[in-house]
Please model this.
Amino acid sequence: MRNPTVYILASQRNGTLYIGVTSDLITRVWQHREGLVDGFTKQHLVKMLVWYEQHATMESAISKEKAMKKWPRQWKLSAIEKSNSGWMDLWYEIIE
Model:
């Protein structure tokens, strides 16, 4: 899964959220899950992939990430609920 991708991780349903961007979603999410990324996600145990969106270019993905980081929390929750109403960990979806 080597495509520019914006993603949201959560600590749990309606928990702490983290928005990131990567060109290699599987590797990046694995790094978060294993606690290899120092900082916010490691400190707050934010490991569950709950939303992601692939883009044609990294510029487009970065633009979307920056915009989403400014969104009100409810908009972020709505984006997750729209595509993943059960708040399933999508890690297992992307590694298959």
